[in-house]
Give the backbone structure.
Amino acid sequence: MDSMDVHPKYPKLLPAQLRRGWCVSRKINKIYSEVLSKELTDKLLSVEGHITPRQCATLFYFAYTQPGPGTIVEIGSFKGKSTVWMAQALKERAETIKIAAVDPHINTREKEIVPNYKEESSYDAFIKNVSSLEVNEWVLTIKKTSEEAAKDFNQAIRLLFIDGSHRYEDALLDLELWEPMVNVGGIIVMHDTKPTGPFPGVCRAKNEYLKNSPRFKEVIQLLNLTVFKKIS
Ligand SMILES: C[S@@+](CC[C@H](N)C(=O)[O-])C[C@H]1O[C@@H](n2cnc3c(N)ncnc32)[C@H](O)[C@@H]1O
């Protein structure tokens, strides 16, 4: 065992999953910090939103490294934090695809459907953030619910990020509607999957649809975000 195999927090216990996750984490940290300047990283992080810096870096990594063909779809953009991180990855690679950023941007004031915010809509802030980060060229704004948007969508997907409504039925529906469009070899990222977190319904949908299925392999489990690869 070399020193890279010793986790600082768990030096004795090394389940394969932890070791695999840790190796991916190292790659994630390396890529975004090599590609982005400190100034740009700070600007991207300053967008108001509901994902942590580590989760932003993870989205950046998969948008930057996940090979085509296919596009990127995000369910639940809010004010655009996750969107601008993935769009920046496409910009850095001079890609010609756009992220389909799906969100009705309606403030329903229901805890499981939207975060707590005061405006009637997150749409104006989303447009302003995408524009001020200069990533408009890589974003296709779809101001619809996941269910409405899926009806007209017919592109293959290489990276699917799910962070829309956090009700069990809605999270499961997001998977049922969009997963069939993900290429074999493609990546599915789900946010708010922590089993003891405030959204047990998301965790349940993730377990039922992805974790318990032989068609998907867990690539990395952060505290509150899980990444799967579609293997068949
Ligand atoms: C937790 S926020 C997303 C946070 C965002 N990813 C970020 O980086 O800050 C959840 C978003 O999902 C959206 N949403 C709720 N129901 C939805 C649905 N059925 N389809 C698509 N988006 C939905 C809400 O409008 C809200 O903006």
Observations:
- The CA atoms of residues 43 and 98 lie 21 Å apart.
- Residues 14-230 form a domain with the Rossmann fold fold (CATH 3.40.50.150).
- The chain has one domain: 14-230.
